[in-house]
Amino acid sequence: MKPAFKLQDLLLQGDAALAATSGLLGQQMAVIDCDGVEFMTPGQLDLLFAEIPEDWDFLTLTQMLELTSLSDELAQHINEWIDQRLGQVETEQELTSTVTTKGIDRILSFLPIFERKGIRLYEINSQQSVLEPYLYSSEVNGFLQTLHDEGFILSNFNWGVWLDEANQYVNEPDLLRYADLLTLQKLLTTHVRMERFNSGNLAQLIDSGHILEVLLQLATIRQTMSGTEPGIATNSVGRITATRGDITQQSVDAIVNTTNIALDIGGGVSEAIHAAAGPGLKEECRKLKGCAVGQAKITHGYNLSVPWIIHTVGPVWQGGLQQEDELLAQCYRNSLELAALCPVQSIAFPSISTGFHGFPIERAVHIAVTEVDHFLQSNTSLEKVIFVCRDAKVFEVYSKMIKDVLEPSTV
Q1: C-beta of residue 309 within 8 angstroms of C-beta of residue 335
Q2: Which of these, 2, 158, 18, 8, lies nearest to 95 by C-alpha position?
Q3: Global pTM?
Q4: Helices 138-149, 101-108: crossing angle, 10 deg rounding
């Protein structure tokens, strides 16, 4: 087992400790725990990574870092340092210069296609005499053509050399949240080119959800370009907004986690938040000793970019006879009241109880929008409340409900 060093301790011990650890990293004989470190100076990075081989990129380096402890801020610092060290900044700017925001919007317009469940996007011709047995739908072919048309497929990129790195992103989806625009271009270039030599490669990536995850990360990157997600409409009335995206990637002061009464890691939203926040979140949740249905408790955000996570327990739908409506309303009310006690000006909610808990979507969304609107009428500290939807159908319901419930009151 490789020895694990705490980066925080190394920084406290000074330059000699960083330099001594560098040799072990270069020989892949150590692992670095980055928990608690958000920033390193270029000089500190020079010392820590002085002995790594010249051809190492960020993806290779992550083999020596504990990903669950690596914050997005520190990952960005390391990426920038590697770019400068290898003299790649200018080259990467040239590679991405042909990609426009309009082009990214066109690519993201295909996102709903890959989110659909139970729809086959390709057929397989079983005749052995056929050279290309995989027949992709017109939608997939349109997506591939758009990638080419918008300059997303790199013509001067040696994708074969990068194939191992591309496969790591396929095998370790969590790495995608660190991927920048150029990395996504490299990935899709590799996947599309590989299809020529490995028929059915794209079909496997569609079935595994990898193409969907790549597009979701692209949507996140596009959001940072203009503050809204392109090709995925955003509807807002006053301080209430509905948007498409990943709740762990929202630029807000607090996000809401739907959890169970033990405040343990569940599925869906809870699993995604815990995976992004790291093990510290689970430990703090354990100390809170549970949470009742409809109530809310708050923790730090840990490795997430948000400082606060508010945890609430949504009701399980039982036909509407067990006070489910009131309990769901309490989830929103108590979460908002807790946020108002902290320095929170913006908060993001998932669609509470509409997944595994089976709450009828229209009914749940009406409660959510109405309860938030009622709270904001007497609260001035919260500037924005966002309903984050990963599912296209849920987003449509929120969009319509915000318009139906709120717009009459603004006339």
Answers
A1: no
A2: 158
A3: 0.48
A4: 170
